[in-house]
Amino acid sequence: MEEGDERRKEAIVLVVIVVLACLALVSLLVAFSYYCYITNKLSKRLKSSKRSDFGEKGGLSNIQVATEKGIQVFTFKQLHSATGGFGKSYVVGHGGFGSVYRGVLPDGRKIAVKLMDRAGKQGEEEFKMEVELLSRLRSPYLLALLGYCSESDRKLIVYEFMANGGLQEHLYPDRGSNGGASKLDWETRLRIALEAAKGLEYLHEHVSPPVIHRDFKSSNILLDKNFHAKVSDFGLAKLGSDKAGGHVSTRVLGTQGYVAPEYALTGHLTTKSDVYSYGIVLLELLTGRIPVDTQRPSGESVLVSWALPRLTDREKVVEIMDPALEGQYSMKEVVQVAAIAAMCVQMESEYRPLMADVVQSLVPLVKHHRPTSTVGSSFHKSPISHEYDKHTS
User: Fold this and answer.
1) Is 121 annotated as a binding residue?
2) For 142-190, what is each residue's pLDDT tens digit?
3) Contact yes or no for 363/197 (Cβ under 8 A)
4) Beta-ladder partners of 221
5) What are the residue boundaries of the Protein kinase domain, all occurrences included (predicted)?
6) SS3 89
7) Rounded Cα–Cα distance for residues 83 and 89 (Å)
8) Residues 126/235, Cβ–Cβ less than 8 Å
9) Under CATH, which number does the domain 72-160 receive?
10) Catalytic annotation present for 215
């Protein structure tokens, strides 16, 4: 009898030991799972923090940094007052992002206010990217950021005011109504081409990793009261690869007629994608034609396809020139600018020049138009001019 009781006690003790061991094992598994969960969450936060420092999508931490660099945080009420309640008479531009309004601050400063109306994640990312980039980039050839407003779903960006608006409206005044001729003379167009090129050169060559604009076009080149140019609208900008000849893969965005062919086909984005877009703008300055115009005769609707064969023919290049420019330029100047445009819009991206080469090629032409110069002054050949000779000889 006593022996049976002993066996029962031993069995009970054994069960208790097994149960306690199981509970201890379960506790260890729960603790380990919790540890993994916390570690993973912390890791994601750290990665997010690093990425937002100057990353692809950006973050609010960067916007806070921006305020330390002299970027003002405005209230919606302040900007509502400065723009006459965002009245229709204050509108100076439209885009896929929303509208731009002119305004005046209490201290008398003239401003332009972009009111973002693109809802959802895409609009939020464009807002963050533009504020982050412009708070860090410093160039006289980029539109200056003055501040921003982010109150709930209201996203506004405040810039310096550019009295003469976008280049596009001066190249094609009254388009669709009376079709008035552009009043931009040859000298002004050359200077705009150079200053816009310097803006892209800064983004590509003086920032690491380089910044790819991704939506470079004539409407995003703004002109001040003296028709000096600045590159604007960085909502679609991307950080490029820091490897020589490298690319980043991304969703294809941009404006029809300006998008580089290899980017449109593969989604591979490089600084040379911006160079192609710049070449299209240069064609606009030369021809006074928009990139895609379905109202043109057959064979002339796509600007680059129509112009390219003429750009590489010294006898035919004059045929593409904007009639409004008649008598304002020499053939040497036209051939040089045509050579730059031809190289920029090459189908193969590796054949396109760097923006530094474009700047170097344009500088002598713009200096050529100083008051002390004469039509017969010496003409300097650039690296692009030599490449042009190779392709056309």
Assistant:
1) yes
2) 999 999 999 888 899 999 999 999 999 999 876 644 456 678 999 999 9
3) no
4) 231
5) 86-366
6) helix
7) 9
8) yes
9) 3.30.200.20
10) yes
Contact status, residue 284 vs residue 169, Cβ threshold 8 Å: no
Give the torsion sign (CA, 265, 267, 272, 277): positive
Query: How many beta carbons lie within 10 A of that of residue 374, not counting itself?
Result: 6
Asked whether 76 and 148 are in contact (CB, 8 A), the reply is no
CA–CA distance, 174 with 159 (Å, rounded to integer): 26
Which contiguous run of DSSP H or E holds residue 155? Answer: strand 154-160
Tell me the two tokens of residue 335. Answer: 């051939």
Separation of alpha carbons 251 and 82, rounded Å: 37
pLDDT at 250: 83
> Coil, strand or helix: which one is 72?
strand
Q: Which residue has the tokens 């009781």?
A: 5
Residue 173: asked if its preceding bond is cis (omega within 30°), the reply is no
| H, E, C per residue of 179-213 | CCCCCCCHHHHHHHHHHHHHHHHHHHHCCCCCEEC
**Structure tokens given for 328:** 């304002």
The token pair at 216 is: 């470079």
- DSSP 3-state percent helix, strand, coil across the chain (nearest 5): 50, 15, 35
**Residue of 117, 174, 215, 357 marked catalytic:** 215
Q: Which of 181, 167, 285, 174 is nearest to 224 (CA)?
A: 167
Greater pLDDT, 30 or 350: 350
The burial class, CB within 10 Å (0-12 / 13-18 / 19+), for 299 is exposed
Q: Whose CA is closest to 239, among 288, 204, 277, 215?
A: 204
Domain boundaries in the chain?
Answer: 72-160, 165-174+181-365
Structure tokens at 84: 């006459």
Q: How far is CA 303 from CA 219, 254, 255, 291, 383, in A?
A: 16, 17, 14, 5, 25
pLDDT of 119 reads 58
Minimal CA–CA distance to 341: which of 189, 164, 142? 189
Q: Residue 251 has which token pair? A: 């969703």
- Homologous superfamily (CATH) for 165-174+181-365: Transferase(Phosphotransferase) domain 1 (1.10.510.10)
- Beta strand pairing call for 154-160 and 221-223: unpaired
Please enumerate in sequence order all residues whose Cβ is within 8 A of that of 175, keeping only pairs 6 or more positions apart, or say none. Answer: 290
What is the end-to-end Cα distance of the chain in Å, rounded?
Answer: 117
Instruction: Tell me, yes or no, if the pTM score tops 0.70.
Output: yes
Q: What are 20-31's pLDDT values in tens digits?
A: 677 766 666 665
